[in-house]
Amino acid sequence: MAILGFLTHTLPSQAQATEKALAAVPGLTTYGVHKDTYVVTVAEAPSEEMEALIDRVKTIEGVLAVYVTSFTREDEEEDGRAVSSGAALISKSKRK
Amino acid sequence: MMSLSRREFLKVTAAGIAVSVLAGPAMAGQQSDEADKWVKGVCRYCGTGCGVLVGVKGDKAVAIKGDPNNHNQGLLCLKGAMLIPVIYAEDRLLKPMIRKGGKGDKLTEVSWDEALNFAADRFKKVLAENGPKAIAYYGSGQALTEESYVANKMWKGGFKSNNVDGNPRLCMASAVAGYISTFGKDEPMGTYDDIDAATCFFIIGSNTSEAHPVLFQRIAKRKESSPNVKVIVADPRRTNTSRIADLHISFKPGTDLALMNGMAHVIVRDEMDDARFHGKYCNFMKGADAVTFEDYKKFLEDYTPEKVEAITGVSAATVVKAAKMFVESAPTISLWCMGINQRVQGVFANNLIHNLHLLTGLICKPGSTPLSLTGQPNACGGVRDVGALAHLLPGGRLVENEGHRKEIEELWKLPPGTIAPANGRHTIALYEGMASGDVKAVFIHCTNPAHTLPNLNKMTKGLQTAFVAMTECFKSAETVKYADVVFPAAFWCETEGVYGCTERRYALIEQAIKPSGEARPALDILMEFGKRVGVDPKLIPFANAADVWEEWRLMSAKSVYNFAGMTRARLKKESGLKWPCPTESHPGTNRRYVKGYDPLVPDNHPDPIFFYGKPNAKATIFLRPYVGPFEPADADYPFVLTTGRVIDHWHTATMTGTVPELQKAYPGAYVEVNPEDANKLKIANGDMVMLETRRDKMAFPARVTDTCMPGLVFTPFFDPKLLVNKLFHDAADPVSREPEYKICATKVYKV
């Protein structure tokens, strides 16, 4: 699994409800509402599924924007996926 | 399998990083880290120049986070956050290759020695038989500053060839010529900090939300901060950027010069100009002739809102509203990019943006500035500033200026007369020269011209005949198909060097990991190649990138690009500094030309603003008439085709195409068709639609959307399977020589 940390930007009036909605999505963990408007969120997913997960976040009611702050693949490294050969990451991205 | 506690630790760390971004720079470094060490750098993609920290565990890069101390304040876009997998992509080039049997032969892996000699022998032969005008260097706004500096020095000072150009010619050459013609010197006076002080944004020819996403977040945040903040987006497409706009101006493609003259007309007509400012700090010019403000007023009579409506399709009321908003909602920042620059009138369009600021005095003040957004991460620092274009020398000097050549010859310790007095070939002329046989050998560095040049069927002819040596990181780059020699270059954080972004900020990318395979730093490749061709080793006496920086840093003190205070040690410590920065104690400059901010304005200067780039210290308001595009739609080719970026791919997708989560979002190019046009042409979503121009034709899947106005179609240019530049002409701005990628006429029909 890769791990992506991000801030989910919401309207202050919808922040609590948005956090609940985010927490209900498999693969997402929330860490509270900060500065009234940002839900600190962490996504866990295989690298190749991360985009779809973030796209899903963007469709949740009350979400204005997603600001990525960090990404790590250490977990995938230790799972034996990808890095040494890049095989897992490249497998779905052949362009030729 | 990793233990759960470790994964939980990583999650908590990721959350902590996010919280620290909100807390600001003071929290930096207070997180418990999941990596053995964090190495400072700059994102590899767009011209925003976001600071990053690369997490290294053992000998692998495993994580990335935004640098909270850089201007991006810890934020990244998704593609920036996905940079780590690119390092380890299967597509990486890891060994040198040559075509032993010439163009028809296959690429064969060889030793570094054989590859370097193969390239050097050919260049030596061409130099001996055909002279310095027969060789060329084609560089990149993605190359490190030290690489471009050395290549420029080797070619102009060593080989005596001014055939040094690169992809910034295709990207921001019009912005360079715009700044130089209006202010006398290149590069903006403002910075990103002005975004936080602005209360009006005039965004024209820029889909900031997709091309510069982190910057767009900053603009959107500013917009949300107060209902008094107004955003004007002028673009024939209704892009994602326009969703925050108070006023979206959808004009007929290529008519924005009329729009901006129309806004100027309203500003002057309604006495919203700042007569004291432009009377003191500006002159008026029609071409090379000095004219008066009264002449300018008379010129603007051709651009009444009603006349502008007839040209642009924008209602007269909207023209008036835009002009009023520009002035009344000030401080105003203008932001623009390729929609303005990639035009046959790109320089004029840049001048007209500057005109609006000079006319109103909304310049050189907090939040008021014309800020050109750069497309590439080091086009500013690495190409514009070091002078790695056919007409430039380092530090804003010109090849055709005898005094400037003499200065550089002295600084480079060259005999007088070494640097050739005539400009080299700009990009279009370079590839035409290769096709004609006048240019016989080219060294291409860190760019993919077989994908990015306009009128590709014509432009790639030269690549089929000339000898091509290139550095590259990825096998699937289109240009590799034409290469005679491919040198595998170390990628991004596998080597070290400086990037300079849109806001004159120089920041160091430190080496985090060793190069993959047999890849070598491009600086080493360039210097080793140069020495084997015959460059005097004394001209490039550099052991490493830090040595190159030291020479360039000290040299800069002799120019208005003075960054002598940016020592390597300081760049390692700080997350970027903005020039001018003349001493090690200087904090960098947020506002050029302003007393008290710009160290080049003397403290005892009588005026608060000093446009020192101009001999008379006055910026120029130009009388630039509306001129249309090179190839407007007509009866035979009734649609306008335009191209651009999408958020998850960068340029030719050699990097982003290796990341599945990005590739999945945009697996291929498509064509946007307005519903009105789709209805007439019986096109539905997903139908294959042919775009046929006077150069070529190709089919794209349709996206029926109101993003484009009727009569306009759009396709992104990242897809190597659909090289859309084959459809484009190669007409270019007569001053900047930047091609008009944004407009060509096309037929549109369902296949």
Describe what this molecule looks like in 3D:
The complex is a heterodimer of chains A (96) and B (751). The longest helix of chain A has 12 residues. Chain A has 4 helices and 4 strands. Chain A has one domain: Alpha-Beta Plaits. Chain A has a 4-stranded antiparallel sheet. With 96 residues, chain A is of the alpha+beta class. In chain A, 50% of the residues are buried. With 751 residues, chain B is an alpha/beta fold. Chain B folds into 4 domains: 86 residues, ADC-like domains (N-terminal domain of TfIIb); 208 residues, Rossmann fold; 196 residues, Dimethylsulfoxide Reductase, domain 2; 90 residues, Barwin-like endoglucanases (Beta Barrel). Helices cover 33% and strands 17% of the residues of chain B. In chain B, strand 1 and strand 2 form a beta hairpin. In chain B, helix 5 runs parallel beside helix 22, helix 13 crosses helix 14 and helix 19 crosses helix 21. About 1% of the residues of chain B have low confidence. At the A-B interface, strand 1, strand 2, strand 3, helix 2 and strand 4 of A face helix 1, strand 3, helix 2 and helix 25 of B. Strand 4 of chain A pairs antiparallel with strand 3 of chain B, so a sheet runs across the interface.
Annotation keywords:
heterodimer, A: 96 residues, alpha+beta, Alpha-Beta Plaits, B: 751 residues, Rossmann fold, Dimethylsulfoxide Reductase, domain 2, 4 domains, 29 strands
Write a short abstract of this structure.
The complex is a heterodimer of chains A (96) and B (751). With 96 residues, chain A is of the alpha+beta class.
What overall geometry of chain A do the principal axes of the alpha carbons give?
A: globular
Measure the end-to-end span of chain A.
Answer: 27 Å
- CATH architectural grouping of chain A: 2-Layer Sandwich
Beta-strand fraction estimate of chain B: 15-25%
Report the radius of gyration of chain B as a whole number of Å.
25 Å
Domains of chain A, number: 1
Largest sheet of chain B: 7 strands, mixed
Total strands of chain A: the figure is 4
Give the overall form of chain B.
Answer: globular
Largest beta-sheet details of chain A: 4 strands, antiparallel
Can you identify the CATH class of chain A? Alpha Beta
How would you name the oligomeric state of the polypeptide chains in this document? heterodimer
Domain count of chain B, please report it. Answer: 4
Strand content of chain A: 35-45%
The CATH topology name of chain A reads: Alpha-Beta Plaits
Low-confidence runs of at least 5 consecutive residues of chain B? 25-32
CATH class categorisation of the largest domain in chain B? Alpha Beta
